[in-house]
Write a structure and sequence with these properties.
By secondary structure, the protein is an alpha+beta fold. It is 19% helix and 36% strand. Strands 1, 2, 3, 4, 5, 6, 7, 8 and 9 form a nine-stranded antiparallel beta sheet that branches. The longest helix has 14 residues. The N terminus is likely disordered.
């Protein structure tokens, strides 16, 4: 995890906290395919997690959150898909990509691991 200064963390927390005031979208209100033992993040808890942790996946990809509501998924080869994100009240993150595509994912804890569950129910553990 890269070092974060207290000022940077505080700034990101303020920006992410502002995003939690956005009304819940219909896409985020769906029934997520959680499993017994999964623990959902609350909106504030997820904002704090994203402000202080790298979101890296085992396929080599990485989700970058911030500054503000800026989002980018960086593929293993370096290609970037950019957009804007918001944290929903149910602990999901919805992204509107610049190419017009949008998606919502749910972050959960499963034991000692953090996973992302997509709208199809596929589970992606973080590194």
């Amino acid at each position: 995890m890269p070092p974060y200064t207290a000022a940077r963390i505080a700034l990101r927390m303020l920006a992410l906290a502002a995003l939690t005031a956005v009304p819940v979208a219909a896409a985020a209100a769906e029934d997520w395919a959680t499993r017994p033992g999964d623990s959902r993040f609350g909106a504030e808890e997820l904002a704090a997690f994203l402000a202080t942790h790298e979101v890296r996946f085992y396929d080599g990809g990485q989700s970058l959150y911030g500054p503000g509501d800026a989002y980018a998924y960086v593929y293993d080869g370096g290609y970037r898909a950019e957009g804007r994100y918001r944290i929903e009240a149910d602990g999901s993150v919805c992204v509107a990509f610049e190419n017009g595509f949008s998606r919502c994912d749910l972050y959960v804890r499963a034991g000692s691991r953090v996973l992302v569950i997509d709208q199809k129910g596929d589970r992606y553990p973080l590194r």
